[in-house]
Amino acid sequence: MTMARYCPSAYREDQEIDESQVALVGLVRSGLLKRFESSVHAFALTAERIVDSHNAFLAALEKGYLLTPKALEEWANVDSDEEWEQLLQKTGAESAEGYDVERLCKDVENDRDILRKFAGRAQKVKAKTCPKLAEFALRRLPTNLAEL
């Protein structure tokens, strides 16, 4: 995985890489690993959310914009072109001019597809096929008195 969505500056034609974006890539990778270690279910949910975020990023890229993390959060709720234009002004989305958009798009799509496969595989893990998950299910605490 390239984690291109989190470090678009690596695709700038002037080759000026934003070090804070490089750090963000490390944090996202670490966060995914922690979610996977936490539970397969948590990892699957996180991977699906990231897939949705990648789709939003790609949609904006097709329109010629790089969405900031703030814009990505809000973009998912936009239903019309008018709202889209207002969002771009409000969040300060950056023009994709000066970026290798074709390569960035390809790498973000590839990452999205990998994450989608990870989520699909994680969703298939069940207690009967995973000894660790089965043990956890046996040891879980009751959530209400009826389960006692």
Question: What is the assembly state of the chains in this entry?
Answer: single chain
How far apart the termini lie comes to 45 Å
DSSP helical segment count: 6
Low-confidence stretches: none
Strand content: under 5%
Number of structurally distinct domains: 1
- The computed structural class is mainly alpha
H-E order:
HHEHHEHH
Mean pLDDT: 80
Please explain how this structure is put together.
A two-stranded antiparallel ribbon has the order 1-2. With 148 residues, it is mainly α. The chain has one domain (4-122). Helix 1 runs antiparallel to helix 2. 64% of the residues lie in helices and 3% in strands. The chain is built from six helices and two strands; from the N terminus they run H-H-E-H-H-E-H-H. The chain has helices spanning 19-38, 40-62, 69-75, 81-91, 101-124, 131-139; strands spanning 65-66, 94-95.
